[in-house]
Design brief:
Number of strands: 0
Strand content: under 5%
Distance between the termini: 7 Å
Helix content: over 70%
Shape: globular
Number of helices: 24
Structural class: mainly alpha
Order of helices and strands: HHHHHHHHHHHHHHHHHHHHHHHH
Amino acid sequence: MSEEMNQNVDVQTREYVLETDLPAYMNRKFCSTKERVTYILKTATAELTLGKYDTSSELFLYKIFGLDAEAHGNAAVTLGIYDLINDPLSAVIIDKMRTRWGKFKPFQYLALIPSILVGLVTCVMPLIADAQGMDAAQRLIFYMILSYISETVGAFFGGGGYIDNVFTPNPNERTALLVSSRFASDLFRRFPEQLAGILFDLVANGKIKINLTKVFASMKSFWWVIATVPAVMWVFVSKERVPQSEKPPQVVKGMFSVFRNKPLLIYTLSGFVDGINVGTSQSLYYDTVLKFNMMSTIAGIPGMPISYASYPWATKFRKRFSTKTLWLFQRGSIITSELSFFLVGLIGGKKNGFYKKKLPMTIAMMLGNSLEMVFYGTKKIIENEINYEVLDYCEWQNGYRVEATVNLLTGYINKVRGIALTKINTMLLARWAGFESGLTAVQTEDTMWKMFVAAFGPQLIFDVLSLVPMFFYNIDQKTRDRMYLDLERTRAQTAANEKKTSDA
């Protein structure tokens, strides 16, 4: 290339970089209409699951599918160890990927067929077990084989999910799409879980007799298809717009860059403490003790209009407060709600306690839920935003993005925690509380009391402790604005360099 041509390219590069300094750049829309609509549909339908009755819930595993709680806890430990082994391999592969289509786009296509196949088998898993006449041990083997396959697919092809971090370089456009998609999700996402809850309540109270296994498989399959179609569409229409560093960082260097990322470490520590969910299942408490799976739905009716109104508030809050402040607001409302519910349940003690009575517990949940709904819209976007923010901070400080390495290191400690909790909680349920598995099992009064205390008490303690690290989170509103302005300049420079190289 001649010297004159080089000078022309350099001038174009400088002009391109200077354009990003204009305030209008932060309001620029990068995504096409098709992409925006598909993202909203994909995000909105992703939560169309059976919720607390889905295939990973204790209610499904121990009542519908008939697994022994302690045996499953032991088997889950081996799955956790396998997860710890394959994660480093997948992180290296993902963060080293550089292609003409982008860093994450190839993984979207690689994950497509395996994910669909695993999803189909998961939907009909209980029907297969019944048709083959599997006993509890065989069912556990079947479930664990499917879990190992699912974990392998998620680890090595899951890099496609990171494209949600980089489909637009404009944080304002990303926030607007998050608000729209979360609002759309809340219009109907609770319906599948509510329908399942009604059926479970009718069966538990002897009002109807149906084959729960067949009904569960049918509902699971139907909603899985509804959620999967937009996700497949997203694979074909989404684009990767945040340019990656020209050369991938060395693995060790990438790991050390994570440890230098103070916001990430603080957020990870907070999440780790918040995730120490020692105790028994809340869904099992609603089903077994109260025989009222629909309580959370009924209790949520007064707060429903507040939750919808909270979305416009969320966008106003986002402009006025930092990510840290908003996170503390929404977490504080949840803790206040949890505390009031737990204290009401303790009234009367084991024998005559309110924890066994539908009306007082429903009223307590109504009041607490209404408070939570004030910050509901904030909660739905801030959990995504703070994750994007700490990743962008890492790019700002180090000059490159290492999503997979970040996910590896933050996920590692959470998975070690998960292995321990799975073992502890299944022992609490089976040995300490004395829970009996199966649809026809009857629980003692002592078991029901212990299920209530263990389901809500420990979680409340660790939720309070999770607030402490976030007081040291160091990205305030001013730092956030400066960070994104700097990132726009460096990303524009990287994109211009890529164009310069491709044109040479």
